[in-house]
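chain below, 107 aa
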Amino acid sequence: MNSIQLVNFPVKLTFKISEVSEIKPMIDKFIEYYRGPESEEFSCRILLPRNLESENDVKRLGATIHSEIMFSLKKNKLAMNLRDIRYIHDANTYGWLLLNPKVAEKL
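prediction:
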């Protein structure tokens, strides 16, 4: 798979996160969708900025999102059934796909 396929892959939810304060509302929507009736077709894209002051800021943002997702899944007694794919979305953005494994097979 190449980055053009990843950029154009259709998803149900897309979040653009550039600050830690945006993570909690994103997690709430993520969990609501994940536990919903369309969980077999779960597909989510998270976009993170590439132009933060340092590479560590982006890594910290991504690590915070990952840990919040894991914590929220556990808190809600939901099993993690996701495949994650990280890629460069465009010149200013990193992309992160979180997909049900059945959806990921379409790539």
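The chain has a mean pLDDT of 91. Residues 3-104 form a domain with the Translation Initiation Factor IF3 fold (CATH 3.30.110.10).
thats it, cya
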